[in-house]
Amino acid sequence: MSVSHIHDFPQNRLTFGRNNAFHKELRRRVDDYFRSSGRSQRDCPAMYLKTAIILAVFSAFYLLLVFVAGAWWQALPVAVVLGLSMAGIGFNIEHDGSHNSYSNHAWINRLAAMTMDLIGASSYVWHWKHVVVHHTYVNITGHDADIDISFFGRLTPHQKRFSFHRWQQFYLWPLYGLNVIKWHLYDDFRDVILGRIGPTRIPRPKRWELAGFAGGKVVFLTLAFGLPLLVHPLWIVLLFYALTVCLAGVVTSVVFQLAHCVEEAEFPMPQENSDSIESAWAVHQVETTVDFARRSRVESWLLGGLNFQIEHHLFPRVCHVNYPAISNLVEQACRDFGVRYGEHNSFRAGLSSHFRWLRRMGARTAGSPPSSRMLVVAPDYGPAE
Ligand SMILES: [Zn+2]
User: Fold this and answer.
1) Cα of 232 to ligand 1 centre, how many Å?
2) Nearest 5°: phi and psi at 353?
3) Mean per-residue pLDDT for 125-142?
4) How far apart are alpha carbons 187 and 121 in whole angstroms?
5) Predicted pLDDT at 5
């Protein structure tokens, strides 16, 4: 997708509507909840326990795969668990760390964020790509890098359609996995060398940041190739690297896609001849995001609260273990202000919606923006009477 302009952070190219009544009231209700319940927003014991469990599973299955499994039928299930634990680290540990929502201590957040380097991707690039660009410009075509997978797929109504996109609802799934290999071995280096993510300039890492970037890559490449090559032939190492990382990649990409790349999400564009988005920032976050499986405790635990992405986008500095508790407050506030609160009852329902969205975007007749039947936002976002 070609983008004609480049913009820099921290100065934002796009602005949002100025009516912040919804956001203010929402913040007041959620602050009230934390004050009256005595629960803490960060440094939650459940989070430290979860981190220990996931890192223990990851380490144990890595050692089993590299040094113990002797036959393919042993290695395969071990690689599956290892891949899932890598996704688990991304969902549960690094994501909160990168948003500074893990702890009130900067060094703990940094340490948690650096688990991203451990599983292959640079935490430095992720900070800019996800925390800054994606969270600010969610679902805005040409700005949000998460919805730009170049010509491979058409994820929004504002992207160019190629005839082969008519099959994208089938071929994109394995590409989500392969894309992660490209991300580890190429995209991170390209972004740092060019100092740019899509159309957005990012600062190149300096001193400690650069050391962290390089050190993270060295650690990952040693774990993925260096150590395994001491005990296995090259083709086995490459095969199991690809299998494990692709599985982690497919699971991670799909979980993130269910939040923004489904039929119920909006894909707003700046108003004509301007750099302004009509909705206020908080309204934009809700309109472009969809929750799923809110009542499933198992999925909430495993997915690091990424089934509560509306809550995450509104309160990215609140630790994800608190999302189930505040989601009813968010839903009620949306109802009071006439902002659509989109959700799927289950992971499967979200998955089907993602499939249908890909099919719609790739269809020959594609081109129209999302249906307005999903948009029930009151014109001025004031409290409903
Ligand atoms: Zn996030």
Assistant:
1) 37
2) -65, -40
3) 91
4) 9
5) 41
Residue type, 24: K
Ligand 1 centre from 76 Cα, in Å? 31
312 C-alpha to center of ligand 1: Å?
7
Ligand 1 midpoint to CA 258 (Å): 13
How far apart, in whole angstroms, are the C-alpha atoms of residue 269 and residue 14? 10
pLDDT band, residue 273 (cuts 50/70/90):
confident
CA 15/CA 158 separation, integer angstroms: 19
| Cβ atoms < 10 Å from Cβ of 146 | 21
Q: pLDDT per residue over 181-232, tens digit each?
A: 999 999 999 999 999 887 788 889 888 999 999 999 999 999 999 999 999 9
Dihedral of alpha carbons 258, 294, 102, 120, sign:
negative
Read off the tokens for 130.
């996800």
Longest Cα–Cα distance in the chain: 70
Span from the CA of 330 to the centroid of ligand 1 (angstroms): 17
Residues contacting residue 130 through CB under 8 Å, at least 6 positions apart: 98, 146
Sequence-ordered alpha helix ranges (H) in the chain = 21-37, 45-63, 72-89, 95-98, 106-113, 115-118, 123-126, 135-136, 168-182, 188-194, 207-221, 227-231, 234-260, 281-287, 297-302, 309-314, 323-337, 347-362
Mean of pLDDT over the chain:
89
Query: Residue 294: CB partners within 8 Å, gap ≥ 6?
Result: 300, 307, 308, 324, 327, 343
CA 95 to centroid of ligand 1, rounded, Å: 6
What is the bridge-based pairing of β-strands 276-280 and 15-17? parallel
Dist. CA 218–CA 66, nearest whole Å: 18
Residue 281 CA to ligand 1 centre (angstroms): 15
Amino acid at 197: I
Give the whole-number percent of the chain exceeding pLDDT 90: 76
Centroid of ligand 1 to alpha carbon of 134 (angstroms) = 8
Taking 80 as the threshold, does the pLDDT of residue 372 lie above it? no
Confidence at residue 366, expressed as pLDDT on a 0 to 100 scale: 54
What are the tens digits of pLDDT across the range 283-330?
Answer: 999 999 999 999 999 999 999 989 999 999 999 999 999 999 999 999
